Amino acid sequence: MKTFKILALSCVFGSFSFGQTLKEAIKKTENERFDLAGADFRALISKEPTKSENYFFAGDNYCKNDNIDSANVMWKKGTEVDPLSALNYVGLAKFLWFKGDTTSAFGFIAKAFTLTKNKNAEIFRQVASIYIETPKFKKIDASIVLLEKAIKLDPNNAENFLLLGDALQEKTPENGSPAIKNYNLALNLNPKSPKAIVRTAKLYQRAKNYELANSKYKEAQTLDPTYAPAYRENAELNMKFDQSNKAIENWKKYLALNNSTEARYRYATSLFSGKKYCEAITELNSVQTGGLNNFYIDRMLTYSYYECTENDVKANYVKGLESSDKFFQKVPSDKIIASDYRYKGLLLSKNGKDSLAIIELERAITADPLKVNELIGEIGKLQFKNKKYTEAIVSYEKKRNGIPTNLSVAESFELGRAYYFGPKDYKLADTCFADVAQRSPNYAAAYLWRARSSFKIDPKNEKWLAKNHYIKYLELLTPEENAASTNKSSILEAARYLGDCFVNSKDGKDNTRAKFYWEIVRKLEPTDKQAAAFFASPAGK
Whole-angstrom distance between the N-terminal and C-terminal Cα of the chain? Predict the structure, then answer.
């Protein structure tokens, strides 16, 4: 992306008189058809090289298309061909303001006011737009004063009220009434203004009124099918309300009007924000092929390759790690966020580099300590995977912090197994498995591991502590799970224990139930010696 990302500045026909061709070029800029507008402005400048307005609006076209440096070149040329061109001095002020040099910008603004003797509504509007739309150094109250002056000088110009609505929305974002009042005044002057309707739609969008916002965007599209912002804003609304298919439909209409690299970048960013990661990868790669290359793209590619589970997932993980490496080569250190380290760590793990992955996840915690609970669980998972059970216990216990529900069910399950395999603290392991069983009562593995922990606590079967857990485990298995070869050993384990229990328990002998469980063993393992011994005994006959 270019260094500066700005919002659209007003392009209206105040006291200046423009030819029809210039009006058409300006309309293309307003409609975000920047490439077509750029071609028109180049033709106009070639035809009328001394007309300063051509340079100002050509610069404005660059500015709206995120290329403020090229815009500044145009505005400088405008002052060179006409040293009395107030518009182009406003352009130079705009460049400096967005660069952060407000002191020098004020000098050019003062010059523009002097040249027009403080009596030109267009100059007031253009300066007000700088104050409203700058990412930093906003001067909302000053913009309102300028727009009130513009209204007195040019009361029938709808652009006055559009900009005043924008200013009032910035002043009181929690209250959209003053803004919408002015947008309606603009519509009274120009009922077919798609700009005013889209602004109204955005207010409804801010209020989370999807239906009204969507209907307004559709109204603007009907009034002027070439007004590309109506499709772009509609697409972003759809994404925010999980209407991804409708969003893509609107984006395609937008791109049909403005298929520039910058437009595709916006589309890719929208896909990414809407979690359409696989589609975002295609667009982001297309943008890079088109010549736009920055660390934001590499960041989005990194995240998207990890999240995209379609096609060749292993290849995605390799490409994701490559994108992460490119990202860290480009990104300024002050622009790195915790998620950058997190995704690098996750991708390293997927590429079989768990030790390096843990280092990156720890860096993510350092970058944002507030994310410790989210990230420490991922570290614990990798530590458990690599049989570093003591370290995994430390990580999971740090996240649990005495509250079992701080851990997910999967994390509590792994913590239990870490206690089981590591320090062999079977009571703490059983506590974890009991928590899993309570929160996920139909999860058979929780009862299997409770049974195993209980057996370790009662290895001589003095109390047969594992009995009820093994029974529950077998009850919860589905027919498919019973038939799965991966479960054969654990089913045999449970059935042998229960068969033995109902034969040897002092208080719970039950030959019928013993036969039931030993029959399970014999069916799964026809040559099992214990089953054969049982069925050869008096109890089994």
Answer: 82
In tens, the pLDDT along 398-452 reads 999 999 999 999 999 999 999 999 999 999 999 999 999 999 999 999 999 999 9
Contact 293, 285 (CB under 8 A): no
Q: What is the pLDDT of residue 11?
A: 36
pLDDT tens profile 280-307: 999 999 999 988 899 999 999 999 999 9
365 and 376 Cβ atoms separated by less than 8 Å: yes
Q: Where are the domains of the chain?
A: 1-191
Closest among 315, 334, 335, 312 to 323, alpha carbons compared: 315
> How far apart, in Å, are the Cα atoms of 406 and each of 412, 437, 439?
9, 16, 12
Q: What is the rounded CA–CA span in Å between residue 168 and residue 185?
A: 14
Give yes or no for a contact between 44 and 21, defined as CB atoms under 8 angstroms apart. yes
Type of residue found at 52: S
pLDDT mean across residues, the chain:
92
Q: How far is CA 102 from the centre of its chain?
A: 33
If one looks up domain 1-191 in CATH, what number appears? 1.25.40.10
For the full predicted model, state whether its pTM sits above 0.70: yes
- In this predicted structure, the answer to whether residue 341 has a pLDDT above a threshold of 60 is yes
Q: 124 with 157: CB under 8 angstroms? A: no
> What's the rounded Cα separation, in Å, for the pair 142 and 133?
13
90, 96 Cβ separation under 8 angstroms: no
User: CA-CA distance, 451 to 471, in Å (whole number)?
Assistant: 9
Query: Which position has the higher pLDDT, 318 or 4?
Result: 318
